[in-house]
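Quick review question:
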């Protein structure tokens, strides 16, 4: 049997001789999103004190499952799709994180998203580890029956590692309440008992939680209000620009408008609308609900999509896709504050530019954690089969988001670091403290 040489300078029996920095299943020359996550961990390591001895735990997922998902297409042929479920860390509790259906999903992306879930869950202190799943499939190419078969076969394949006390999936890009209902049913059929707590983001009539749909946007608004208090910004006079007017961006825009802010620009996949004196947000939401996009809205002027990044505003909310704020547009952004509703909307290079320009970034790992917080409430309600009122849910959500944000703000001030690094410090310390208390098995 041939043996890999020891890393340069590592003595034969030193830990470095046994510990490869990267898993063999990733291409070191093309690490993808996992590479970005590793850079973020390296940035936080100097702040971890004695817990830094466990830091390698964060640099490798605990469990990585790749599954083949074969289904009958409507024409009778068989198609195979590649599926993943990655449990990054379970030191603080079961894995938790969404399932993404997208033709470009990669293992590296799912690994990074699972790790960011570990950070997010620890940052808001809900008792979960981090996990994520995905299938390389374009659901728009499937019939409803094919979508159901893909979902059920995938759920069955990952059924060996998920469960209400093991790992609890939820919706993410291109998955919704109906997909969660099929996942819950498939898992329950295999177990022989209805297990509502195996997924969150379910329909309310099937053990879902009131307030879950609005939770992420409400969390975005809550941290924005808290940051405004620290920076002396008056929300009722603020101008807001929102990219993505779906679940997250639509709800956040509505809440800012209700607080008196002017939503001056909104961009979605159909185009960009602008109105200096503020768009009529309820009318825009109704238009989007009717036609599927902001395109064609008569209450504002159409501007070029690229011009969106330079509109005069105080708050910018990216709530659409990854890697939207880049070196190409970070220098033009006029906002004083950016609230990351989307996951990973800012590249590390853009982050540095924004930092140098004194623009405050409220990072995704805290700003969009409202969704998983209410998912946690859903799971608790499913276990007790006792459901709370929407007011109770919103009140608890706001309390958790405010507390988590205050802790992150304080750590950022004490260490003179960005809010992103501060969130990583708070979260990584919690994860590694749990690791330390539990010790290594065997
Ligand atoms: N829904 C949640 O609870 C939740 C929680 C945490 C993070 N997120 C993240 O928030 C982001 C948005 O999720 P969502 O649930 O609101 O999705 P959604 O599908 O409801 O809305 C997405 C929005 O982005 C817009 N969009 C798509 N492509 C675009 C493009 N090229 N340019 C501009 N806009 C574009 C769409 O038109 C739509 O308005 C994602 O990154 C998601 O991972 C969502």
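Suggested answer, residue by residue:
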């Amino acid at each position: 049997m041939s043996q890999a040489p020891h890393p340069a300078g590592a003595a034969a029996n030193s830990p470095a001789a046994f510990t490869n920095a990267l898993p063999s299943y990733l291409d070191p020359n093309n690490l993808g999103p996992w590479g970005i996550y590793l850079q973020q961990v390296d940035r936080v390591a100097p702040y971890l004190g004695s817990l830094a001895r466990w830091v390698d735990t964060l640099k490798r997922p605990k469990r990585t499952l790749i599954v083949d998902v074969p289904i009958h297409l409507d024409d009778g042929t068989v198609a195979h799709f590649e599926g993943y479920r990655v449990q990054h860390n379970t030191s603080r509790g079961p894995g938790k994180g969404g399932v993404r259906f997208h033709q470009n999903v990669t293992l590296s992306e799912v690994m990074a998203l699972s790790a960011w879930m570990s950070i997010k869950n620890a940052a808001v202190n809900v008792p979960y580890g981090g996990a994520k799943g995905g299938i390389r499939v374009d659901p728009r190419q499937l019939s409803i029956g094919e979508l159901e078969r893909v979902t059920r076969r995938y759920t069955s394949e990952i059924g060996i590692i998920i469960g209400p006390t093991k790992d609890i999936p939820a919706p993410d890009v291109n998955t919704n309440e109906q997909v969660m209902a099929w996942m819950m049913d498939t898992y329950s059929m295999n177990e022989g008992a209805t297990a509502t707590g195996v997924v969150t983001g379910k329909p309310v009539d099937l053990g879902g939680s009131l307030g879950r749909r609005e939770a992420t946007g409400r969390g975005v608004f809550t941290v924005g209000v808290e940051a405004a208090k620290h920076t002396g910004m008056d929300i009722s006079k603020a101008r807001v620009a929102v990219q993505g007017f779906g679940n997250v961006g639509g709800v956040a825009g509505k809440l800012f408008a209700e607080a008196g802010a002017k939503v001056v620009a909104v961009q979605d996949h159909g185009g960009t609308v602008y109105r200096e004196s503020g768009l009529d947000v309820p009318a825009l939401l109704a238009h989007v609900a009717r036609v599927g996009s902001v395109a064609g809205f008569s209450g504002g002027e159409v501007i070029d999509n690229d011009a969106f990044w330079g509109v005069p505003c105080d708050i910018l909310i990216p709530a659409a896709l990854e890697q939207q704020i880049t070196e190409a547009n970070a220098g033009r952004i006029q906002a004083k504050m950016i609230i990351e509703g989307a996951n990973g909307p800012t590249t590390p290079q853009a982050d540095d530019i924004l930092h140098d320009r004194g623009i405050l970034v409220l990072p995704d790992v805290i700003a969009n954690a409202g969704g998983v917080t209410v998912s946690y409430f859903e799971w608790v309600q499913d276990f007790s089969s006792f459901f709370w009122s929407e007011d109770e849910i919103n009140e608890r959500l706001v309390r958790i988001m405010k507390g988590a944000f205050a802790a992150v703000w304080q750590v950022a001030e004490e260490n003179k670091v960005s809010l992103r690094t501060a969130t990583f410090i708070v979260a990584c310390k919690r994860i590694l403290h749990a690791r330390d208390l539990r010790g290594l098995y065997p």
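Why it works: Residues 311 and 334 are 7 Å apart (CA to CA). Residues 390-415 form the longest helix (26 residues).
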